[in-house]
From TrEMBL:
Gene Ontology biological process: ubiquitin-dependent protein catabolic process
Gene Ontology cellular component list: Cul4A-RING E3 ubiquitin ligase complex
GO molecular function: phosphatase binding
Spans traversing the lipid bilayer: none
Family annotation (PANTHER family): SHORT TRANSIENT RECEPTOR POTENTIAL CHANNEL 4-ASSOCIATED PROTEIN, TRANSIENT RECEPTOR POTENTIAL CHANNEL 4-ASSOCIATED PROTEIN TCPC4AP
Source organism of the structure: Buteo japonicus
Coiled coil ranges: none
One Pfam family here: DUF3689
UniProt xrefs under InterPro entries: ARM-type_fold, TRPC4AP
Identification of the protein by name: Transient receptor potential cation channel subfamily C member 4 associated protein
């Protein structure tokens, strides 16, 4: 009669399900029933000057309040707020010592950390070292899921997309290490932690101890993957294998240490493999984050000592890059190349680890075996150049064993990868990081002899790759592979042997200079070095190579310079496109060496007038260079990357920028001398907006 629309009964149910041990999903479904009754009135309430809820105008809201709805929802919110209480989260960690509740506790902690606004500090967990040492390897792998959250910066997902202005402003605010960095240091101080992770990452499937029953394993899978369809998929795989095996794959009597072994069941092999893949995923992620952190050198030393790289090399064919079996587990009906299948994710995580491992670090030579290291030495001797110190100093007892090292195995699968594969990006990044740093002729030749250059050109030109990410990674790799290497340019010319092919190559470069500018920089630097050499072989390649002839034209260099400056602005600079600014500087530094800087600036001015927009390029360039000074002259910035990649001293970089920014309008090398006063627009300050 009172037209309460069932609200009191719903509230009674809600109250019954709002205690700490209740099933909050029940609360959710009840709230779904109540909310439509209130939402229409809420709209009216907001639009009618927020009058108090009265029985006549807002009957449902009034009823909700009358029967204690506000108090009940407060109660539920209180329980959900537990997530923000650190003492509660730290208490949960102590529950992990109980084997029976370990999985449920780990899952709850992971969920809580997912919604927590502030990162917990691992230091605060009571007896962390003894807690970790009490875990068996299976629990440690699960624990890595939690650790992954605590050691990752909260907002790294779109790192390349954040503007450098915003990042620099944030760095000024953040004095001292972040919580994630402190947590990384805490982990490294746990005795034996890295060693156990390396063992987990490199153990073979046959080494996994089969001490848990099939049902326990299934429960773990179910908790892990949080997806009801997983059980169906697992059962399908299991049934397939059971049918294939006449001896009955489910019954096993070799589970050591278990009572009543004859009735125990065991997981079929493909599930064991998937299980191991899931574990390795978590472990490799943690190792990867630590390799990119502040304690990088310490981590490098440890993972070299514990033979992570040779261990992964031995797993490469059978587990990491294994052939998909007919019954390979794929979740929720996606195909086998779906990015969320564990197989795919493991491959990407493995490639990311290789990239972090070899990037600007001399331990990268552990990716080779002894025979391959000898080959590097032979290349240096033949070319009559000194061997790289890092090759000589590599501890041969820690390198890969077997017929091939990890780097050459990676090259093999890279060449077989289908054109549209999402792995191409990560594979190219991993190989490129091996070449990064000070250019090594022997490293380049090692890869050139294995047909890498022809493979890259095939992908860029013949298959006319369309993916921006893959193209960028291939251009960057090509740049590192060819830089200062006359043999590489000779090979390039042999492959790109028609004007049509060369035009396709140029079209790919010009389609996005943000993606190809590192290659443009490499060609420009190489051309400059070759022109200063008096060697018959170099002179021959210089006269024949389409690419070098193209770049030797002043008009082409000017066109690249004009476009490179035009596509970036201080407000839109990111980690990804700031390379365009550095490439434009390289072109101008080489011009300055030849005393051609005034000519280049005057040509830019003429190009502005041709575009009917005087000042728009040079004003922008002036602002960009002022930002460059702010950004790179910061004491925290590492300038060795700029030096190594260009073979130009950082002092020369700084001097060139200073000369260009000189306020003296009579200086022939100052940008302001080429902007008419009427069009001058260089005094604005940068802001983070």
């Amino acid at each position: 009669q009172a037209k309460w629309n069932g609200i009191p009964l719903l509230l009674q149910k809600l109250y019954e399900h709002s205690h700490p041990n209740s099933d909050f999903s029940q609360c959710q479904s009840i709230l779904k029933e109540i909310s439509p009754l209130l939402s229409m009135e809420a709209m009216a309430f907001v639009t009618e000057d927020r009058k108090a809820a009265q029985e006549s105008t807002f009957p449902n809201t009034y009823t909700f309040d009358l029967f204690g709805g506000v108090d009940v929802t407060d109660l539920i919110t209180h329980h959900l707020r537990l997530a923000e209480r650190n003492d509660f989260v730290l208490f949960l960690f102590t529950l992990m010592t109980n084997k029976k509740t370990f999985l449920q506790t780990a899952t709850l902690i992971e969920d809580i950390l997912g919604v927590k606004k502030e990162m917990i500090q691992l230091d605060d967990i009571p007896n962390l070292a003894s807690l970790v040492s009490s875990f068996d390897q299976q629990q440690l792998a699960n624990f890595c899921r939690i650790l992954a959250v605590t050691i990752s910066e909260l907002d790294t997902g779109s790192d390349d997309k954040h503007t450098l202005l915003a990042k620099n402003a944030q760095q000024k605010k953040n004095l001292g290490p972040s919580r994630a960095e402190i947590n990384q240091a805490t982990l490294l101080n746990i005795p034996g932690f890295i060693e156990r992770l390396c063992k987990l990452a490199t153990r073979k499937v046959s080494e996994t101890t089969g001490t848990s029953s099939f049902l326990q394993e299934l429960e773990e899978w179910y908790t892990w993957l949080d997806n009801a369809l997983v059980l169906d998929a697992l059962m399908r795989v299991a049934n397939e294998e059971a049918e294939q095996s006449s001896t009955g794959i489910w019954l096993s009597s070799d589970e050591s240490g278990l009572a009543n072994t004859s009735t125990r069941t065991q997981l079929p092999q493909s599930m064991k493999i998937m299980h191991e893949i899931m574990y390795k995923l978590e472990v490799l992620y943690v190792l990867c984050v630590l390799l990119m952190g502040r304690q990088r050198n310490q981590v490098h030393k440890m993972i070299a000592e514990f033979k992570l790289i040779p261990g992964l090399n031995n797993l490469f064919d059978k587990l990491i890059w294994r052939k998909h079996s007919a019954s390979a587990l794929v979740l929720h009906g996606h195909n086998q190349n779906c990015d969320c299948s564990p197989d795919i994710t493991l491959k990407i995580q493995f490639l990311r680890l290789l990239q972090s491992f070899s990037d600007h670090h001399e331990n990268k030579y552990l990716l080779l075996n002894s025979q391959e290291l000898n080959e590097l030495s032979a290349i240096s001797h033949k070319a009559n150049i000194p061997e790289v110190d890092a090759v000589v100093n590599t501890d041969r007892s820690l390198v890969c064993d077997g017929k091939r090292g990890l780097l050459t195995r990676l090259l093999q699968v890279m060449k077989k990868e289908p054109a549209e594969s999402s792995f191409r990006f990560w594979q190219a990044r991993a190989v490129e990081s091996f070449l990064r740093g000070t250019t090594s002729y022997a490293d380049q030749m090692f890869l050139l002899k294995r047909g890498l250059l022809e493979h890259i050109l095939y992908c860029i030109v013949d298959s006319e790759c369309k993916s921006r990410d893959v193209l960028q990674s291939y251009f960057d790799l090509l740049g590192e592979l060819m830089k200062f290497n006359i043999d590489a340019f000779k090979r390039f010319n042999k492959y790109i042997n028609t004007d049509e092919k060369f035009q396709v190559f140029l079209n790919q470069i010009n389609s996005s200079l943000v993606d190809s500018n590192m290659l443009v920089r490499c060609i420009t630097l190489s051309l400059d070095r070759f022109e200063n050499q008096s060697d018959a072989k170099v002179a021959e390649v210089l006269s024949e190579c389409r690419l070098l002839s193209y770049m030797s034209q002043m008009s082409m260099r000017m066109s690249f310079l004009f476009r490179l400056i035009n596509i970036i602005h201080v407000q839109t600079l990111t980690q990804e496109n700031v390379s365009c600014l550095n490439t434009s500087l390289v072109i101008l530094m080489l011009a300055r060496r030849k005393e051609k800087l005034p000519f280049y600036l005057r040509t830019l001015q003429q190009m502005e007038y041709t575009e009917k927009y005087p000042g728009f390029i040079l004003n922008n360039f002036h602002s960009l260079l002022r930002f460059w000074q702010q950004h790179y002259l910061n004491k925290d910035k590492d300038s060795t990357c700029l030096e190594n990649s260009s073979c130009i001293s950082f002092t020369y970089w700084k001097e060139t920028v200073s000369i260009l920014l000189s306020p003296d309008r009579t200086s022939p090398c100052a940008i302001v001398s080429y902007i008419d006063e009427a069009y001058m627009d260089i005094d604005r300050d940068f802001s983070e907006e």
